[in-house]
Specification:
heterotrimer; A alpha+beta (294); B alpha/beta (610); C alpha/beta (556); B: 610 residues; alpha/beta; Arc Repressor Mutant, subunit A; Glutaredoxin; Rossmann fold; 5 domains; five-stranded mixed beta sheet; four-stranded mixed beta sheet; 13 strands; C: 556 residues; Barwin-like endoglucanases; six-stranded mixed barrel; five-stranded parallel beta sheet; 29% helix; globular
Chain lengths: 294, 610, 556
């Protein structure tokens, strides 16, 4: 195989030659060709943590499997995306995660588990789980680290990938490592500015807007009945596009399109949470502990 | 970067932080991030622990976010975010010590002083991090807050303990209690704890160990009198290309465990664009391994000379020695060697009249096995959590501070002055065609005379064990854990295997760090396997799923098997888990975390269960 | 001064420029997502220079921070220009090709030596020199500003002073170089573009230009008054003099949002007839004879808004408006019909398509394209045009195309009010991240740190006055006084107080501010008022009902 034109290389994927842009990752290249791989921690636009290892592939000549999300393509690379070895690793990743965290609000992971026949119960029913209490110390978003797969997305988006607030870090080590605000500080006393960009990138539902959290608790959350309308934020002069998720003529959630050049999916607290004044806004129940003026 | 929200801060905490930073040279200025670990060490030395208030103020002073600093402080086992009572008492909880009376010592300590503090990697205490550790068990007698810790690298004086950094060899409860009472915080470097024999008996040779016990490790003059610094002057005269060529001819392979050809690394860094760095990996924390400590304590100038040659050869002006946090004596002796070399003009702005500058700085680790992994080590030097980075890019392209970095293990570097001074041919007199030179083997556990032994590659395992006096009379070797916790168990029928890279590889094993932990037939192998599984669970950084959860599950399964509660598919799960950890983990820690367990399973199948 | 009223650059360029020069702007709080682009720029290697009297959260990211005294920006800008000329750092080729009036400018700034400017602004002369060199020598540089520049009585002059620097260095008309006023509200830019200014017609045409009027008269079939109308400050003057007796207020709450609000309240209360069209029953609406309930533009109606990078974006109806509330467009159309005009727009898109035929900036922007592209930046002359990232590339044509960019020499003069013995502190006002304007939108959501406006004071001043964090203090200006909780804030300079204005229900900040205004823009000097301060009650001993105001005779 050879370089076909400037900036383009050729790789072999499951025996099939494919062209690839130099500098692109294996994952980007495969997806461009319509070949999908399971991913959990990956989020286009954020620095790849390569922590979940769900996207591993077999590359000829490599001693170990390789995370497709961060490995750049190289000319002549021979990749197997679905070998027995690859499938065994992915299945184990899903089993390990599901044996440790609550996957109930993570449909993508559930789907992968079905696809790979993952059986998290095989480790036994008395194994250690992440076991964290639900943290509800404000009325904008809820943290349920029992669902956290430690994908690092929230840390990245709060840090150098967008927000530069650095309210979050991974603390501790090993099985006890957790996303933390520093000594377990409640969010209102922390560096957090409540932009909710962590919530937007959280894949597992560990971080969830309070309205969604409580609607799910009450059994009233129904994405099948929701319509999404893209409009523009009513606050300052930046012009952030807002996706309004509306259920029964009530705004239940606000997000921003990830591919938009103004926001890349990020918002500030007003854009994401400041819609309560609209007549058609859903509200979260007010827990006395989470209110209060300073 | 915006400021941190105010946290409760006492005047004392503020003063402590200000004094610590002033002591590091930052009375009025903002330190760079890389000074975070030194600052945390100094702050803990001052306060006995790292209180949230002081960490928040330290973050303010360093222009860092408090959660970030907290994340770093809670990553390293030596840093305590809970307040201890009294001096810091660490008792080794690892394989070699446990096999030589450590098990009994741990039990006795627990009886008298209650359960130990163990670093669990918890992100914060439920109370929000301000808690005081441990409850007193009794009030009518001395109660020590003690810790059970991974291998301290003192397997030659096992069972070992440390009190505020001072080594307690052949520790007993009474000895620990006596020392804990009178121990102050001031650190005084003690005598070398390694007492090797003055003469070598075959097959032992004395190349790397030529000066050990003969030459004052604090004296540059003595070092030079015994052939020291000839190699540096030769290297300057030869020029980088010739130095690398000599290294290449020697066939020197990295001694840290990966056995990568040294010359290839040197050449890659020398030719890479950007600011170059040299790092000496002295984070020796593979259980059962203590050779680098012996080298650094007894021949520190050799390491400094080697690093100087490396820096001149690959074009670096700055070099770091990342010394395992517990190795205070080694760090002090290296520090002394650096100062003397600088005064003698052999280091500093003009190295030996070459017109070239080389500066060496010592950075102390803080209790994280994973920092032996080179990219985790870089992060640690940079003042971050010691999480390994994705490779590629490799350190020779993007390493420390993003620059091309030469990173070599202490023992690897110690060979360099000898190769330059005596030539590659002299080096190749020892060893085999593929495994050239000599190797330091650390023999520990159930042998009569544990220690480090320098032998040519190709010496058999049986010969090396004999140097350590073999197992006690009447005992048989049950297994040898070869290569440390990341290594594999060798069986009694493999004792005649020649210790070379190629022979061990053929046998499904590895030389690894050169640790040989001997288990005789008086104990259950399960005890050893369980501790190894426990070790990896403790030391996983937590970044990637296969290792973070996999090491936990491996330990849980081994624990129930060891307790006689094996379930039908447990062995199959261990094999699957091991295969996936090896295949899909982000770094070498996870990739090797199942080696020992999987290699022990056949032995355990042969009816050695307790 | 370049012939178009809008930022010359795009957010994207902030990621690729080499110097971000923020002047009287705190985008970290007031434009958080624009600041994301700036942060990316910094990550990519750009330097950040921040000029602000406060060490704002934006300034905390700066490589160089210039603590300027309130209202002395022209002196600082002129001094930077003086250094650039003095040291031969000006872009001679650009100046000769694309600008005019350098010599008058040079003459004007000659006396603004760094030492003179230091005395006026408080910024050390050495820092002025450093920044001048940095700006002049940067390969690309963007100056961005906000209300710290424009809410002064000499706002327009200050903008000229900044634009002069761009002319001097050629930091205009190229990718990654330009001038960027960051708009305070989501459609300030669009309102102006649509002619909601006393001197403009849609598309930027001057009202006083007969050809422009003819274009719109032909389309609309009505005569357009040939004279510039009144801006808000002149309207207030008109009310004061009895020349204006009727007002129709749409989507504004001037009683709370304008400077010296006691006076504004009196003026509106004194009108013969007041109509307020709003989504809320605001303080202004409470004074109205007729209130027309309107639907929320961004969520209950369709339409367009235009952002600080000239990006026209759609707003879309997502929920039904409550009760009888109607789309503003339909209310205005109904009113027009009652007034005898046969308007028959069926939708916002209808109106927009008319804009596209009349404004040369917008023809290419169909609703379909706006939706598909996530907005388009004007000018966009036809449907194949991708929109325009940056303006004035014509200045880099040799010879220059069109009008040369003029230097406009301006002089510094102090704010209308400065501290004296009776009112020894200077109060400046501004926004906080979590709230917005008079709070009608931001008051309802559950901001976790509480809804409150504070008097922020430097710890040294507080210590001198015996004030501790959380104490209730009284702030008085010549126009009135109010009580608010104190918050110690080391980011301020001694002698400077800061208040946000988001809780007029609790703390009516604009009771204190000065209504002196810029004759060229009509914007009032919110940013500088002389005030006195005293402690009323210690922390913990006061209750919310003790907050509030007293209006002095002088002010009302």
């Amino acid at each position: 195989m050879s370089v076909t034109k400037t900036g383009t290389v050729t790789i072999e994927v499951d025996g099939r030659p494919l062209d690839a842009e130099e500098g692109a990752t294996v994952l980007q290249t495969l997806r461009r060709h319509g070949i999908d791989l399971p991913t959990l921690c990956h989020y286009e636009g954020l620095t790849p943590a390569s922590a979940c290892r769900a996207c591993v592939v077999e590359i000829e000549g490599a001693r170990t499997l390789v995370p497709a999300c961060s490995r750049p393509v190289q000319n002549g690379m021979k990749i197997r995306t679905n070998s027995e070895r690859v499938r065994r690793a992915r299945k184990m990743v899903f089993e390990l995660l599901a044996s440790a965290v609550d996957t109930s609000t993570y449909p993508e992971l559930q789907a992968y588990m079905r696809e790979y026949g993952a059986d998290p119960a095989r480790f036994g029913d008395d194994v250690a789980r992440v076991s964290e209490p639900v943290r509800e110390d404000n009325l904008l978003y809820v943290r349920d680290y029992d669902k956290c797969i430690l994908c690092y997305r929230c840390v990245e988006v709060c840090g150098e990938n967008a927000q530069f607030t650095f309210a979050l870090s991974v603390a501790g080590r090993g099985f006890q490592a957790r996303v933390d605000t520093g000594a377990g500080t409640p969010l209102p006393d922390s560096r957090c500015v409540f932009c909710g960009n962590c919530v937007a990138v959280c894949p597992s539902g560990a971080l969830m807007p309070s309205i969604e959290y409580h609607m799910r608790e009450a059994g009233t959350w129904d994405e099948g009945r929701q319509q999404v309308t893209t409009t523009t934020c009513p606050y300052c002069g930046v012009g952030c596009p807002l996706e309004l998720h509306v259920q029964d003529n009530r705004i239940v959630k606000v997000t921003s399109p990830r591919d938009h050049p103004v926001t890349y999916g990020n918002l500030c607290v007003k854009g994401r949470f400041g819609f309560a004044y609209v007549e058609g806004a859903a509200t979260a129940p007010v827990a006395p502990a989470a209110t209060g003026r300073d | 970067m915006e400021r941190n929200p105010a946290r409760p801060l006492t005047d004392e905490e503020r003063t402590n932080v200000d004094e610590v930073l002033a002591g590091l040279g930052f009375a009025d200025t903002t330190p760079e991030r890389r000074h975070l670990l030194p600052a945390l060490h100094a702050l803990q030395a001052k306060q006995g622990w790292l209180s949230p208030g002081s960490l928040s103020y330290l973050a303010d002073r360093m222009g860092l976010a408090f959660p970030d600093v907290w994340g770093v402080a809670t990553f390293y086992a030596m840093f305590r975010t809970q307040k201890p009572k009294g001096p810091r008492v660490q008792v080794c909880n690892d394989v070699s010590c446990r096999l030589r009376g450590g098990e009994a010592l741990l039990t006795a300590m627990e009886v008298r002083h209650g359960p130990p503090y163990r670093f669990t990697g918890a992100a914060h205490s439920p109370a929000g991090g301000d808690g005081v550790m441990g409850d007193s068990v009794a009030t009518d007698r001395l109660v020590i807050d003690w810790e059970a810790v991974p291998c301290l690298g003192l397997c030659d004086v096992s069972p070992a303990a440390m009190i505020d950094g001072r080594v307690i060899p052949n520790a007993t409860v009474a000895g620990i209690e006596a020392a804990a009472v009178k121990e102050g915080r001031e650190f005084v470097p003690g005598p070398p704890v390694y007492p090797p024999a003055a003469t070598a008996s075959a097959p032992e040779v004395r190349r790397l160990f030529a000066r050990v016990e003969h030459v004052d490790p604090a004296s540059l003059a003595d070092y030079r009198r015994t052939g020291g610094y000839q190699a540096l002057l030769q290297a300057i005269a030869m020029g980088p290309e010739a130095v690398i060529a000599e290294l290449e001819q020697s066939g020197l392979l990295g001694r840290g465990g990966a056995a990568f050809p040294a010359a290839r690394k040197w050449r890659a860094v020398a030719s890479a664009p950007g600011v170059h760095w040299v790092v000496c990996n002295a984070d020796e924390s593979e259980p059962g391994t203590f050779k680098d400590r012996v080298l650094m304590e007894n021949d520190p100038f050799a390491i400094i000379e080697a690093i100087t040659i490396a820096a001149l050869t690959v074009g670096a002006e700055e070099a770091f020695i990342y010394v395992r946090g517990e190795y205070e004596t080694a760090a002090a002796r290296l520090e002394n060697a650096i100062r003397q070399a600088e005064e003698a003009g052999l280091l500093g702005n003009d190295v030996a009249g070459s017109g070239r500058a080389v500066h060496i700085e010592i950075v102390r680790g803080a209790g994280a096995y994973v920092c032996g992994e080179e990219t985790a080590l870089f992060n640690s030097i940079e003042g971050r959590r010691g999480e390994p980075r994705n490779k590629p890019p490799f350190p020779t392209e993007v390493g420390l501070f993003g620059g091309p970095t030469l990173i070599n293990n202490v023992e690897t570097l110690a060979n360099v002055p000898l190769i330059i001074r005596d030539g590659a041919a002299a080096f190749r007199q020892y060893g085999t065609a593929r495994s050239t030179g000599t190797k330091l083997f650390c023999v520990s556990g159930q042998v009569q005379n544990p220690g480090v032994f320098e032998v040519p590659f190709g010496t058999t395992l049986r010969q090396v064990l004999a140097l350590a006096g073999g197992v006690a009379p009447g005992r048989r070797v049950q297994a040898v854990l070869c290569g440390g916790a990341a290594g594999t168990f060798l069986r009694p029928d493999q004792l005649d295997i020649p210790l070379t890279y190629e022979d061990l590889q053929a046998a499904g094993g590895t030389i690894g760090s050169g640790a040989l932990m001997v288990v005789d037939d008086s104990v259950s192998l399960w005890q050893v396997v369980l501790r190894v599984a426990d070790f990896f669970r403790e030391e996983s950084c937590g970044q990637c799923v296969p290792c973070r959860i996999g090491t936990q599950r491996q330990w849980e399964i081994v624990a129930r098997m060891a307790a006689g509660r094996e379930r039908p598919h447990d062995r199959q799960i261990l094999h699957d888990l091991g295969a996936v950890m090896r295949d899909a983990s982000l770094c070498g820690l996870g990739q090797t975390a199942s080696n020992a367990v999987l290699s022990a399973l056949p032995l355990l199948e042969k009816g050695m269960e307790a | 001064m370049y012939g178009a009223g809008g930022a010359t650059t795009s957010y994207e360029e902030m990621e690729h420029t080499s110097l971000l020069f923020l002047w009287g702007a705190n985008p970290r709080e007031a434009h958080p997502i624009i600041f994301h682009h700036m942060l990316r720029g910094i990550k990519n290697g750009a330097r950040l220079v921040v000029v602000d009297p406060r060490f704002t959260s934006t300034a905390q990211f700066a490589h160089i921070y210039l603590r300027v005294r309130v209202g002395t920006d022209i002196a600082l800008a002129n001094a930077i220009g003086q250094v650039i000329l003095e040291e031969g750092l000006a872009h001679q080729a650009f100046i000769e090709n694309a600008t005019e009036g350098l010599s008058a400018y040079q003459e004007k700034v000659a006396r603004y030596t760094p030492e003179f400017a230091e005395a006026v602004t408080g910024v050390p002369a050495s820092q002025i020199r450093t920044v001048a060199r940095l700006y002049a020598q940067a390969p690309r540089a963007i100056i961005a500003w906000t209300l710290g520049i424009t809410e002064h009585h000499n706002a327009t002059d200050t903008v000229y002073a900044l634009a002069n620097l761009a002319n001097l260095t050629g930091h205009i008309g190229r990718y990654g170089a330009g001038l960027a006023p960051l708009r305070g509200q989501n459609n300030v830019q669009g309102g102006g573009d649509m002619g909601a200014l006393p001197n403009r017609l849609p598309g930027g045409f001057e009202v006083e230009n007969p050809e422009a009027r003819a274009r719109f008269e032909a389309a609309w079939g009505v005569k357009i008054p040939p004279k510039v109308g009144r801006h808000q400050s002149l309207m207030f003057d008109g009310m004061e003099k009895g020349e204006i007796r009727v007002a129709y207020v749409i989507g504004e709450n001037p009683v709370m949002s304008e400077a010296n609000h006691a006076r504004v309240e009196r003026l509106f209360a004194g009108l013969d007839f007041l109509v307020v069209q709003d989504v809320f029953l605001t303080e202004t609406a409470a004074l109205a004879d007729v209130v027309l309930p309107s639907a929320l533009s961004w969520v209950e109606c369709d339409g367009t808004v235009t952002s600080s990078e000239r990006r026209v974006q759609l707003v879309r109806k997502a929920v039904d408006p409550p009760g009888e509330a109607r789309d503003d467009i339909m209310i205005i159309q109904a009113l027009a019909r009652r007034l005898g005009h046969d308007w028959h727009y069926t939708s916002a898109e209808d109106v927009w398509n008319e804009v596209r035929t009349l404004s040369p900036l917008h023809p290419g922007m169909s609703y379909q394209r706006l939706a598909a592209a996530g907005g388009l930046q004007w000018p966009c002359p036809d449907e194949d045009h991708p929109g325009t990232k940056f303006l004035h590339d014509r200045l880099w044509k040799w010879p220059v195309e069109g009008k040369r960019a003029p230097f406009v020499p301006v002089d510094w003069e102090p704010p209308r009010e400065t501290p004296d013995d009776d009112f020894p502190f200077l109060l400046t006002t501004g926004r906080r991240l979590e709230f917005y304007n008079t709070g009608t939108q931001s008051r309802a959501y559950h901001w976790p740190r509480g809804q409150m406006t504070y008097v922020q004071i430097h710890p040294a001043d507080a210590e001198r006055l015996g004030i501790q964090d959380g104490d209730l203090v009284q702030v008085s200006s010549r126009r009135g006084s109010l009580r608010a909780p104190a918050r110690l804030d080391p980011t301020l300079a001694p002698g400077l107080l800061f208040m946000a204005f988001h809780h007029p229900d609790l703390v009516p900040t604009n009771l204190l501010t000065v209504d002196a205004w810029d004759p060229k823009s009509g914007t009032a000097e919110f940013k500088a008022a002389a005030v006195a301060l005293k402690r009323v009650a210690p922390r913990g001993s006061w209750t919310e009902d003790m907050l509030g105001k007293e209006v002095s005779r002088h002010g009302a």
